[in-house]
Specification:
- By secondary structure, the chain is of the alpha+beta class.
- Among the domains are: about 90-135, no CATH class; about 345-390, no CATH class; about 445-540, 3-Layer(aba) Sandwich (Rossmann fold).
- It is built from 17 helices and 23 strands.
- The protein has a seven-stranded mixed beta sheet, sandwiched between helices. The chain has a five-stranded mixed beta sheet with strand order 20-19-21-22-23, sandwiched between helices. A three-stranded antiparallel beta sheet has the order 5-4-6.
- Helix 3 (about 75-80) crosses helix 10 and helix 8 packs antiparallel against helix 12.
- The longest helix is centred in the middle third of the chain and has 21 residues, at about 345-365.
Length: about 550
């Protein structure tokens, strides 16, 4: 007897992605390669739409964010400074029975790839001890493959932003607070890729590093630091915002972005990392979750969701690390701070100095090199704190980091719906309707002649198609009945279909040069003049 399906909805989604050209298994004709996926015609359009919307929202719609596009391979010292070489690893266990390799924290979830009958669930084969498995892909730069040529495919896009911070700051003429945004490929040699495209070995990230003034600097300049309160509405940035206010602001900004592309708050969840979960340098991190079909339930039976994006308050760790490892200064000069500091009472200066000193000493102690003594650390922290009087500090950062591929999967899962219709003879048919928000829909409009054997209808339909295609993604389709064409576009997620019929040609004089627009989600139809069609569609897509 066949085994029961573990997740019927996910199986339908995966099948649809293959059938309609959203996602294909990479290298499929050679048996595929685990953890790598290709995007087909519809998937490529969907992904491009999402990235462009993110980019426009994060950079072109703001004056305080600049863009960057960095290389995938960078100096290996960058990954030593960031901690990836030493600590970027998963605990790994090998099974001596089946030779399978698993993440230690998932050993009860994953069936053995070699001998499922022996190793389903709690595998009874003899296991090795858990050991660290670095997730970075290693390569070599240059013709000689020795230790001096080792390099890595980047496991995240953030570190390039930190490494180029001073160059972007100077060339973009920005001032703190400001951000640097990047969209790009990243690579992680996941032990167990799973859940379709959710956890892959090659993926794309959309990351913003938003640099802010330390709270001590804010307090020196403005007297007080704005913090988050339960009833605060931190919608518009203020000069006296501290890290808490900025962190809250970016969580809300990111949620609004998701709402604007069709993911309602009801489909999302939040996880506020506990102190035990936080990285040692982080002050806070909020994960925005989406309730995927494979997401687990909590003790109360509620679906908790899996991570789409993390918004972390990373303190000044990253710039500090690159300053220490490269020997190049990563701090900034702030004339406003220098002027304000000179006017502060001595007791206020001492208080702010001590707080900044304690913070820097704590960082330096946790990140100390083996040969650094407590005296050297204290001396460096003193020098850093003395910089406040000179208007100098190292910026802190708030990091909204989203996975493109996870978001694409969330949009597909959210859009997937089935409609069952029964005709007059009692025959039922179930079709798939992908209810993408018009902003992200791969195809915005389908254009159909009512009949393909009527040259005058075809000519007019092609003219309408040519009118629309320079401005939005449109398709021309004259194959099969109108009903079948509607169904094809519903399955692709096309929000609007335009039909050119005999009334368009003037069979009813009052309807000359009008077309029928059919709305995907409710099936309603309306007539509109061709001269108004483009503006109508653009307003619906951009609105």
């Amino acid at each position: 007897m066949a085994e029961p399906k573990q997740n019927p909805l996910m199986e339908k989604i995966v099948s649809l992605c293959k059938r309609r050209g959203f996602v294909f298994q990479s290298s499929e004709i050679y048996g595929g390669i685990n953890g790598f996926w290709d995007y087909g015609p519809l998937g490529a359009e969907l992904k491009r739409n999402v990235k462009e919307l993110w980019w426009n929202t994060m950079t072109r719609s703001r004056d305080d964010v600049a863009g960057l596009e960095a290389t995938i391979i960078m100096a290996p010292e960058i990954w030593k400074a960031s901690g990836h070489v030493a600590t970027f690893s998963d605990p790994m266990i090998d099974c001596k029975t089946c030779k399978g390799r698993f993440r230690a924290d998932q050993i009860s979830e994953i069936p053995c790839p070699q001998k499922p009958s022996k190793c389903v669930g709690e595998c009874h084969g003899e296991k090795t001890e858990a050991r660290a498995f670095n997730l970075m892909f290693q390569t070599y730069v240059g013709p000689v493959q020795d230790d001096s040529a080792i390099a890595y495919l980047r496991p995240e896009t953030a570190q390039a932003i930190f490494a180029q911070f001073k160059n972007v700051l100077e060339t973009s003429r920005q001032k703190v607070p400001f951000g640097i945004a990047q969209v790009g490929k990243a690579f992680r040699n996941e032990v167990t890729p799973r859940n379709f495209t959710f956890r892959s070995r090659e993926f794309e990230q959309m990351e913003l590093e938003f640099f802010i003034k330390p709270d001590e600097v804010i307090e020196a300049i403005y007297g007080t630091v704005a913090v988050r309160t339960p009833n605060s509405q931190l919608l518009s940035p203020q000069p006296n915002w501290g890290w808490q206010a900025w962190h809250h602001y970016w969580v809300e900004e990111r949620v609004r972005f998701y709402e604007g592309i069709g993911l309602s708050r009801e489909t999302l969840g939040f996880h506020h990392q506990t102190p035990a979960e936080l990285a040692h340098y982080a002050r806070a991190c909020t994960d925005i979750l989406f309730k995927f079909p494979f997401s687990k339930k909590d003790a109360d039976g509620n679906v908790t969701g899996d991570e789409l994006e993390g918004i972390a308050a990373r303190s000044d760790f990253d710039l500090s690390q690159h300053q220490r490892f490269s020997g190049k200064p990563m701090g900034v000069f702030d004339e406003e701070l220098r002027a304000a500091w000179a006017k502060l009472p001595k007791e206020k200066q001492d208080d702010l100095w001590k707080r900044y000193y304690d913070h820097r000493k704590n960082y330096l102690t946790k990140s100390a090199k083996p040969d650094e003594t407590p005296e050297q650390i204290s001396l460096q922290a003193t020098e850093d704190a003395n910089g406040l009087a000179k208007g100098q500090y190292i910026p802190h950062v708030i990091e909204p980091s989203a996975g493109v591929d996870r978001l694409i999967l969330a949009l597909i899962a959210n859009a997937y719906s089935e409609v069952t219709k029964t005709d007059d003879k009692g025959k039922s048919e179930t079709t798939v309707v992908m209810k993408f928000h018009p902003r992200v829909a791969p195809i915005k409009v389908g254009v159909f002649p009512l009949l393909k054997n009527k040259p005058e209808l075809v000519a007019k339909a092609q003219a309408v198609y040519e009118l629309l295609r320079p401005h939005l993604k449109a398709v021309y389709d004259d194959g099969g009945s109108i009903g079948k064409r509607y169904a094809r576009q519903d399955e692709a997620g096309t929000p609007f279909c335009v039909t050119i019929d005999f009334d368009t040609l003037g069979e009813k004089p009052e309807l000359l040069d009008t077309v029928t627009i059919r709305h995907r989600d409710d099936g309603k139809q309306e007539r509109l003049n061709i001269s108004e069609l483009l503006d109508f569609l653009l307003s619906k897509i951009r609105g």
